[in-house]
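Lab notebook, bench 4. The sequencing result for the construct came back, and we need a structural model before the next group meeting so we can plan mutations. Quick request posted to the team channel:

Model the 3D structure of this chain.
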Amino acid sequence: MSYKVKTCRICKLVLPISAFHKHTTNKDGLRNECKICTCVAQNKRYDYDYTRARCLLRDYGITINNYNEMFKEQQGCCAICRRHQSEFEEALCVDHNHETKKVRGLLCRACNSQLGAYENGKDAFEKYLLETE
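Done. Here's the predicted structure in token form:
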């Protein structure tokens, strides 16, 4: 007696079809990932979302909804260079005043780093420029 098997796309194990969730749009009616790999992938996504929400609230006092509202208001673009989020591998950074903790907007990593460097060393930059004129 033979039983049907399928290879998991992620772990590459050959498993009985009972190890796969149903998926009506696939030709064989089953997901391409076994139940265990599906569960692991879902837990990773959940952990990222949960961690992101916790960090936004802890570091900037804003919720995911606040972040998404700013993102929508800025049309998904960096507030300084106006390049769209789709041009970057990472999410836009939350820009804030380090003294007052007030959130100012969302920036790409490059603009956020440059602004931080300027703010941290603007007295030194201004002194240098005055001395070299």
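The chain has a mean pLDDT of 88.
Will bring this to the meeting.
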